[in-house]
Amino acid sequence: PKGVINDWRKFKLESEDKDSLPLSKKEILRQMSSPHRSFSKDDKDTRERFCRKMSMQEYELINDEKEDESCLQKYRKRCMQDMHQRLSFGPKYGYLCELQNGEQFLEAIEKERKNTTIIVHIYEDGIKGCDALNSSLTCLAAEYSTVKFCKIKASNTGAGDRFSDQVLPTLLVYKGGELLSNFISVSEQFNEEFFAVDVESFLNEYGLLPERELPALGNVNTDEQDVE
Known about the structure:
Elements: H1 2-15, H2 23-33, H3 44-64, H4 68-87, E1 96-98, H5 102-110, E2 117-123, H6 130-143, E3 148-153, E4 170-175, E5 178-183, H7 196-205
Parallel strand pairs: 1-3, 2-3
Antiparallel strand pairs: 2-4, 4-5
């Protein structure tokens, strides 16, 4: 397709070491990136002759470049990254957010997108399981960046009397402003020592986590993997 060809031409132009190219090749690459820009719409014959000529020049230029295959692999990799970016809908978070007060707590729930899952950890310092759960959620936040992970001290919620030491740590899960799940004393669901993988399995049992995200495409070895 012409759009793909022109995109490839533009990418190749941007990838070239322009300082090392002779002026003739610089001009060819510039023209290849926008082959119709130099002519008026009425000059059809000239434009067609130019396009045929450019095809031959492009062929010769590409065959003169020993590193063209490497350039093509970079182009394919960039296309995959662009596609992945377009398919990754919604905001990204990637960290465990500390909420300072009840107002921030409400805003985190009510002003978020309707399709965003929000997991809030109600905790207090010195309560068994709270530190381990905060550590686990920090890890999961990096793994599931489309989920909004938050934590807030019970004493800062404005409703501390509802969160006594006996019900901490508590996990609240919201979506679209609605409470989906409420897990009190959630650390009792795990062994005395637990980790992110344990919390992940627990949340997955209730269907509260999305599919794992694709690995970063920057680590893909394009020499070993083909794009169909």
